[in-house]
Amino acid sequence: MRFDLNLAAVLEAIMLERNVTRAAASLGMSQPAVSNALRRARALAGDRLFLKVAGGMQPTARMLAIWPELHRSLGTIRTSITPQHFDPRTETTTFRLAVTDSLAVEAVAAIALRLRSAAPRARIAFAIHTNANSLAGVERGTLDCAVGMFPALPRHMHVQGVRTDRYICVMRRDHELAHRLTLERFVAADHVLVAPSGNELGVVDGWLSLQGHARSIVAVVNHFADGLRIVAGSDLLTCVPQSYVDRHGSGLMAEHELTSCALPFEAERILHKMIWHERLHSHPAHRWFRGLVADVCGLSAAFGDEAAEAEPGRAIAPVAAGRQEAELGKATRSQP
């Protein structure tokens, strides 16, 4: 049986959508046509390729093995024949993106609305972010790009800094540690850790371990808003990015009478990065989309000079937004 390049496009669409109906819609085909193409691909491969499961289609081991080369090859073909002139108004691409929780509150809606305005025929699909899952998704091709902290990245991954930030400590306004938080008191207190991945240690714990300390974590949640609500009803502390509090958590802070303090020890600024794979690096539509994402995620910087110089353990107030261009410029790296 002769191989038809259209079968590769169908397999790619099913892999990305994990659903035959959505794959058909993304290809502009009928569902029966996609199902028929899948039957032909299965006959060629001598494998089921996808199995029906609750909610969609699950790739087999054989499909997972051929996927990286299949997706890379299709990307190369598309890039080679795509006109260099790009008009977002006629673009029909489905862009796939994951954004870290601390930025998603503002970024998800802003990106969707900006895309709808500039490229009304394009689609966007957001995925839940964890550093590991987003990196794997970009590697596999199930994500076009992702925004997160990504403390470690392979050298072949393209990366651009989009926003600097810092962690602060949040507690009830009438908490006994609210006026003067020392390192000893911070470590002795019980904490809520916000970790989308569910890991039981976070970046703050890494900083503490470098100084020979560890804190007591009694609850792990996936969203910063949940962490703030738990702190509001308890004597627990939590650490969150200051940009989240300044831009989105201020309502919760006021409603639940919470306050924030600088961390009572030396801590690095954190840098949110956007990553993408080489296969989409030169694609005109994706280059345009990454520019849109970077612009939205960088619209408000995480903190100003006043907060950056806050004395450890002292209460701090929200500050006006401003870009951190020098920091972001240092963090940009694109490698083939």
Please write out the topology.
Blueprint (H helix, E strand, L loop, with lengths): L4 H13 L2 H8 L3 H15 L4 E4 L2 E4 L1 H21 L12 E6 L1 H18 L4 E5 L3 H10 L4 E4 L9 E8 L1 E6 L10 H6 L1 E5 L8 H8 L5 E6 L2 H9 L4 E5 H14 L2 E5 L7 E7 L7 H14 L7 H4 L16 H6 L6
Helix pairs in contact: 1-2, 1-3, 1-4, 2-3, 5-10, 5-11, 9-10
Keywords:
single chain; 336 residues; alpha/beta; Arc Repressor Mutant, subunit A; D-Maltodextrin-Binding Protein, domain 2; 3 domains; 43% helix; 19% strand
Question: How much helix is in the residues?
Answer: 40-55%
How much β-strand is present in the residues?
A: 15-25%
Strand order of the largest sheet: 4-3-5-12-6
How many angstroms separate the termini?
36 Å
Q: Tell me the radius of gyration.
A: 23 Å
Assembly level: single chain
The CATH topology of the largest domain is given as D-Maltodextrin-Binding Protein, domain 2
By secondary-structure content and strand pairing, the structural class works out as: alpha/beta
CATH architecture of the largest domain: 3-Layer(aba) Sandwich
Question: What's the story with the biggest beta sheet?
Answer: 5 strands, mixed
CATH superfamily of the largest domain: Periplasmic binding protein-like II
The topology string of helices and strands comes to HHHEEHEHEHEEEHEHEHEHEEHHH
Summed up, the domain count is 3
| Structural shape | elongated
CATH class category name of the largest domain: Alpha Beta
- Output mean pLDDT: 84
Number of strands: 12
